[in-house]
Amino acid sequence: MSCVSVSVGVGQDGVTNRALTLLRTMQFLGRKKKLVSNPKTVLYAQPLQFYGQPPLENISLSEFESFAVDRLKLLKTVENLGVSYVKYSEQYSKKLEAELKTLNFPYRTEVDEPEKQRKDHISHFILRLAYCQTEDLRRWFIQQEVDLFRYRFNELNCKKKLEFLHNNNLQYNTISVEEKNHLKEKLLNSSYGINGVTLEEQDFYKVPFQDALDLVRTRKVYLKEGYAYIPHNEIVTIVLNDFRTRLSKALALTARSLPAVHSDERLQPLLNHLSHSYLGQDYSVQKNVGKISLEQIDSLAGKSFPLCMRQLHQALRDNHHLRHGGRMQYGLFLKGIGLSLEQALQFWRMEFIRGKVDADKFDKAYAYSVRHMFGKEGKRADYTPYSCMKVILSNPPSQGDYHGCPFRHSDPELLKQKLQFYKVSPSGVNQILDLVKGMHYQLACQKYFELTHN
User: Helices 267-275 & 61-84, crossing angle to 10 degrees?
Assistant: First the structure.
């Protein structure tokens, strides 16, 4: 990591140097970069980049803010499209291209657009400052940036893809024609979307299998002696793994610079505002308090709860108990839809007493955690409900647990039985299972809601 030293403060022309100084500390770890006489010329001439070189100029505070807000709008669009459409489908791509065009980001990879490239480059680094602050923020930022990167990489023609690999020193070994012919039958049987004609036309890359776990998990590549044989049309998966790893390391490094950010009274409020924007509904102030009653919960669970919460509610009613992961996921959800602290304590106490927990034990062992969710104990943080991505990606359930995402964590046959029990039509069940098979868990959840609400 290198850090370029510049003066701190805002000059007469209203430019901020402190922010750019911090951005320059956020270089990726890894391969050494070649020094060039004019880095901007190289950076902004490329249709796609790994964001390995930080900005090398000063920008005004107004431009700093407008760039950041526009990129947040773009990333929120990426998130919404990923929920509403199959990722990288024709509809998904058209709508994302339209948003890129509207917000003045690069959207035509064959056109040299240095001003748009500049905006793309600087705005990415600004959001690193805002979204490196917590694990949840980092996870959200990485996921949206990876999805955006994948769309852009797929838009490159074959020549541009090869140029990108070369410019970023991504040297993958292609197998020889002799080895490809020798493995022809196995490559045809194990490589997704490859036939006899495309096999002859495409290069295959031999990489360590751990660099292609996404393809291995979905059984899209041939494995032999610890190596995966990847067709050129799937090389994006390897590039994405590299991009994700670099970005994750860069965010960790950026987090170390936060004390310097927090010492600047102009930047701190702006970055805090950015980090709380476009991440869904804000539950920090309970606007829904009192809008539901305890008597409504059973009815709402069967009619309107997402499947993960319906599953937790049913398990609680059946067993009169939930383990910690389930209590946190369901408890924060109930808080988010309007249950007050007093109602929440009454709800959990009544249910646990029906099981093997008496009132005294509940008050000693469980009431504290309920109050903690509402920011009345411990560090007094007012916790928000889990996002879909947090439910899907973190803390998978073990035996005896009921939290997590049913579409992500359930056995397909058990999920099928559950959907049938909830009176989802046979065709609807098949549609949901197809989405689950393609790892479109949020789309599967949305489809379940649509099918159960006509």
Answer: 10
Which sign, positive or negative, has the C-alpha torsion 262, 266, 270, 271? Answer: negative
Tell me how far apart the alpha carbons of residues 327 and 365 are, in angstroms, rounded to a whole number: 13
Alpha-carbon distance values, 298 to 232, 303, 329, 421 (Å): 52, 9, 17, 17
Mean per-residue pLDDT over the chain, rounded: 82
pLDDT, tens only, 323-344: 999 999 999 999 999 899 999 9
Q: Which of 50-59, 269-278, 288-297, 298-307 has the highest mean pLDDT?
A: 298-307
- Cα atoms in the 13 Å half-sphere on the side-chain side of 215: 29
Which segments of 53-137 are extended strands (E)? 59-60
Q: Where are the alpha helices (DSSP H) in 320-387?
A: 324-336, 341-353, 359-365, 367-373
On the 0-12 / 13-18 / 19+ scale of CB atoms within 10 A, 274 is buried
Letter for the amino acid at 200?
Answer: E
- What is d(CA 275, CA 255) in angstroms, rounded to the nearest whole number? 13
Q: How far is CA 302 from the centre of its chain?
A: 29
Inter-residue contact 138 to 131 (CB < 8 Å): yes
Q: Rounded to whole angstroms, how far apart are CA atoms 386 and 407?
A: 16
